[in-house]
Every structure is written in structure tokens, then in C-alpha cells.
Design brief:
Elements (H helix, E strand, L loop, with lengths): L2 E5 L12 H11 L4 E5 L1 H4 L2 H4 L9 E4 L2 E4 L1 H11 L8 H31 L6 H23 L11 H10 L12 H11 L2 H18 L2
Parallel strand pairs: 1-2
Antiparallel strand pairs: 1-3, 3-4
Bound molecules: S-(P-nitrobenzyl)glutathione (GTB).
Length: 215
């Protein structure tokens, strides 16, 4: 059975924002059971974990003699080896993979930049000036994504790994209020979150937090 790593104690308090969430969701979508090895911040930077992940992060993926890091690579690996996350048609499959890259390369960077500023830069003298700039950069991408979605349920036909990745990236905006400005994108994220596989993955990562906090 594949095994992934996840935070022993996630700073998001079980909100499903850490990146193991997208791997858990992919496993659930394809019906693959998996194990989780929980890891402390200290252990993430120690040799045993660095041998799996050169940057000392979570998640990692191990299955037999294969070890992977980077959620894009892990989710793609799962999607390629099981039915359910990539279309059979070669062109549609390539487009779904393009959406995975778009989520990670085009949407995630400005979203993470905004999130980091809101978390770690509030006390800086330039914060109030920088915040609208960062929000506008995200708005540009949300506007473009909204135009492309154009009222359909998923990015390109049936739900795919592209949607899985995009929804997990967009969820990072939950605390910013920006999704409220784009009701179609908010509804898209809600559709992803309503999928039974998402719920199972979310509950599994929440259970880790609940157990660790004793609540
Ligand atoms: N590009 C890599 C991938 O996609 O796999 C990025 C992996 C990554 O950033 N991992 C983070 C990590 O291990 C956890 S998910 N960080 C520790 C470190 O770098 O030392 C990022 C994350 C963490 C916490 C919250 N949160 O509290 O809301 C959200 C997201």
C-alpha cells in the first residue's frame, strides 16, 4: 500500500490546507487505500526525511521502490495508474494535465504570495500598501479563470486531476474573502468540496488534528 507523509500537527488546525490534502483526495477519487506517516517539523529537516524529500517538506509518496515528492508529480502518478482522474482520449488527457500545471504554475504562486503576506507580514510598515497589489494579482487570474469556466461544472468536460488540483489551490483563498467576488468560482470550489472523495480525504486529515489536539 502506498504511504505518504503529512504534518503531525498541521498549522492550519485541520482545515485541509496542507498539501497532503490533494494527494489524499486523489487516492480517494480512484479508490486506492493508503497509509500516512505523520512527521514533526523537526523530523522533516533530518536526514531520513531529506532522503525522501530534498526540500524537507510534506507530502512525500512511497510505493514499493518508488519515492516521489512534489504534489503535481504525485497526483499525476496516481492519476496515470488508476482510472477516474484522467480522460482516456489522448488530447483530453493532455489538456487535463495542462490544467494541473496551470493550477500549480499560474494560479498557486500569486495565491501563496498573498497568503504568506497575510500570515507573516502584517506587522511590516509596507503591509497595507502591498496587500491590495497582491490581491489584484490574484483577481487577474480569478477573472481569467472565471471567463474560461463560463458557467460549466468542470474545467474541461468531466471532473479530472486538473480540477482536483485547481480546487485545492483555490481553497487557499478561503480566508481572504476574494472568492466571494467570483460566485462562479466559489460554486466551482464548493462542487469540488462536495465530492464524496473530497469529504473522505478532508475527514481523514481533520482526524489527525483532532487526535493531536485531544479535542
Ligand atoms: N511544491 C511542493 C508540493 O507541491 O509538494 C510544496 C510542498 C510544501 O509547501 N509543503 C509544505 C511544507 O512541508 C506543507 S503544505 N512546509 C514546511 C517547510 O517547508 O518547512 C503548505 C502549507 C502549510 C501550512 C498551511 N496552513 O497552515 O494553512 C497551508 C499550506
Amino acid at each position: 500500500m502506498p504511504i505518504i507523509t503529512a504534518f503531525e500537527s498541521s498549522p492550519d488546525r485541520g482545515r485541509g490546507q496542507a498539501r497532503d490534502m490533494r494527494v489524499r483526495w486523489a487516492f480517494e477519487e480512484v479508490g486506492q487505500t493508503y497509509d500516512v506517516r505523520l512527521i514533526s517539523f523537526k523530523a522533516m529537516k533530518e536526514p531520513a526525511h531529506l532522503a525522501l524529500h530534498p526540500f524537507g517538506q510534506i507530502p512525500t509518496f512511497e510505493d514499493g521502490d518508488l519515492t516521489l515528492f512534489e504534489t503535481g508529480a504525485i497526483v499525476l502518478h496516481i492519476a496515470e495508474r488508476h482510472d477516474g482522474l484522467l480522460p482516456k482520449d489522448a488530447n483530453a488527457r493532455a489538456r487535463a494535465i495542462a490544467w494541473m500545471f496551470a493550477a500549480l504554475n499560474t494560479l498557486e504562486p500569486p495565491i501563496v504570495e498573498l497568503g504568506m503576506a497575510m500570515l507573516f507580514e502584517r506587522d511590516k510598515s509596507w503591509y497595507e500598501e502591498r496587500l491590495p497589489v497582491l490581491k489584484d494579482r490574484v483577481r487577474v487570474r480569478l477573472g481569467e479563470l472565471s471567463r474560461r469556466l463560463g458557467g460549466v461544472d468542470w474545467l474541461d468536460g468531466a471532473f479530472s486531476a486538473g480540477d482536483l488540483m485547481m480546487v485545492t489551490v483555490l481553497r487557499r483563498l478561503n480566508a481572504t474573502g476574494l472568492l466571494d467576488e467570483y460566485p462562479d468560482i466559489a460554486a466551482y470550489v464548493a462542487r469540488g468540496e462536495a465530492r464524496p472523495a473530497f469529504r473522505r480525504a478532508f475527514d481523514a486529515q481533520l482526524a489527525v488534528f483532532t487526535a493531536a489536539s485531544g479535542s
